[in-house]
Design goal:
The chain is 39% helix and 20% strand. It is α/β, with parallel strands linked by helices. The longest helix has 28 residues. The radius of gyration is 21 Å and the shape is globular.
Length: 493
């Protein structure tokens, strides 16, 4: 039995997977996000650990025998977050997360310090990545910076608590701006530009390799019978890709979670940073991936449900289906800034075209459509970078809405394949990585594609109805881009 644990932004999820790759049990515990200042996004690592322990308790209550027979654990998690620990492995401050935009100025500083940074890392310096956060910390919290002994990514902090070792892997570390992604090793130049060196970094392994053994006291407390290998795991999107067999060139994934990601697998490192497309290592050896990212996806729906007093995100998404498309306002979904294709941390969310007749259904529709347009723009950037995608596995919590999938497919022209169990996301991929770490099984043997539940094909008539609105949506961002710079903290106004 294999346990996959996924540390998301809004929830810690876990699944128990048997040798036949069937999900035997699943559990989840919600997390809270802290935004103490404008552009900031933080969480307490201790909350992650407590939620992980609570998830295991749920599994023990619902599937005691299955949990007892676990032989390997895999980890998946939100990427880019900075977990700062001292020489005694104590957390120094709340973790600064992937959707935190405070370090936009430090991105320029980093690229000036290392002119070859884009060549080395394969990516633009974006404030969501980890390195700019450390430059910000050195400037604004120097006493804390001086005490930093190790910088860990979120799931790797869980790995520390599980095994006692400081270990990371290629896919997650690709999003730090400290990795030479082509060489799959730390870059001394990028570390030095951040005031760090290799001693501050965890040991690197591939995602399907072991990071260590589960601590004996945890094994006993959790009711697991024998020794447990803990796999290195992967960042959330590479892990989700492993979970649905997106590992070969031409394979693609569209993940609709807190953020939205179009992910294309590759067997070569082919960066195109100027398009704001990420070039990362995949979770498996000698594989890479390209990603187009919109920072706010289902988080937009959660926000809209809260401000409209809707019973749930699901209910609001269902209400959207009754809206008249042409009468709905336009929505820019940039609640946490934006990455692909704009690379604009100061971009903001906007409703345009509200009227006295705008109702809850119209607002709901606008949110779904705005996210669909943002993902389509990211897909266009991915294509410009050289990736050809005709269909993609459609996963994540948002994939439960077929209507949302229809909008995305029509706007982008990509067929969306909904796999059975697609909402298991990174946790299932983490369980697969655990199996490979324990058994040494080849990726092709384990990372098979799941049964297809449904295929959403692009609808020409819907695409035609959306085309004019999509063009207006793009123009609206261009018209407001300068205004965003004035309104955001640190702007010229």
């Amino acid at each position: 039995m294999y346990l996959g644990i996924d540390l998301g932004t809004s929830e810690v999820k876990a699944v128990l997977v048997d040798d036949a790759q069937r999900c035997v049990a699943r559990a989840g515990v919600k997390l809270q996000l802290s935004r103490p200042q404008r552009l900031w996004s933080e969480q307490a690592p201790e909350d992650w650990w407590q939620a992980t322990c609570d998830v295991v308790k749920q599994l023990r209550a619902s599937a005691r025998q299955a949990l007892s027979s676990v032989t390997a654990i895999g980890l998946s998690g939100q990427m880019h977050g900075a977990v700062l620990i001292d020489a005694a492995d104590r957390v120094l401050r709340p973790a600064i997360l992937w959707n935190d935009s405070r370090a936009f100025g430090e991105c320029e500083e980093l690229e000036r310090a290392v002119p070859r940074s884009r060549e080395i890392t394969g990516n633009l310096a974006m404030c969501g990545f980890t390195a700019p956060k450390l430059l910000w910390l050195r400037r604004h919290e120097p006493e804390c910076f001086a005490r930093v002994a190790k910088v860990l990514l979120p799931k790797d902090y869980l790995g520390l608590r599980l095994t006692g070792d400081h270990v990371s892997e290629i896919s997650d570390s690709s999003g730090t701006l400290w990795l030479d992604v082509g060489r799959r090793d730390w870059s001394d130049a990028m570390l030095a530009a951040s005031g760090l060196d290799r001693s501050h970094m965890p040991r690197l392994v591939e995602g399907n390799m072991a990071r260590g053994l589960l601590r004996e006291e945890l094994r006993r407390d959790w009711g697991i019978a024998g020794e447990v290998t803990v796999a290195a795991g992967a960042g959330d999107n590479p892990a989700a890709a492993v979970g649905v067999g997106v590992i070969e060139p031409g394979d693609a994934l569209l993940s609709l979670g807190t953020s939205g990601v179009m992910f294309a697998a590759s067997d070569r490192f082919l960066p195109d940073p100027d398009a704001a497309v990420h070039a990362f290592g995949h979770a498996l050896p000698q594989r890479w991936c390209h990603m187009a990212v919109t920072l706010s996806a289902t988080s937009c729906l959660s926000w809209a449900a809260r401000i409209t007093g809707s019973a749930s995100e699901v209910a609001l998404a269902e209400a959207a289906e009754s809206a008249v498309i042409e009468d709905a306002p336009l929505f820019l979904p940039y609640l946490s800034g934006e990455r692909t294709p704009h690379n604009d941390p100061r971009a903001q969310g906007v409703f345009f075209g509200l009227g006295s007749g705008t109702d809850r259904a119209a607002v709901a529709y606008s949110v779904l459509e705005g996210v669909a347009f943002a993902l389509s723009d990211g897909y266009a950037a991915l294509c410009a970078a050289g990736d050809t995608v005709s269909q993609a596995a459609f996963v994540g919590g948002g994939s439960r809405s077929r209507f949302w999938g229809r909008l995305i497919s029509a706007a982008s022209g990509v067929a969306l394949v909904r796999p059975a169990g697609g909402d298991l996301g990174g946790a299932f991929g983490a369980a697969r990585l655990a199996r490979m770490a324990l058994t040494g099984a080849a990726p092709a043997e384990v990372c098979t594609k799941p049964r297809v539940h449904d295929v959403i094909e692009p609808e020409p008539l819907l695409a035609e109805r959306l085309a004019t609105r999509h063009a207006r949506h793009r123009r609206l961002y261009v018209l407001l881009r300068e205004e965003f710079q004035h309104c955001a903290p640190g702007g010229r106004a």
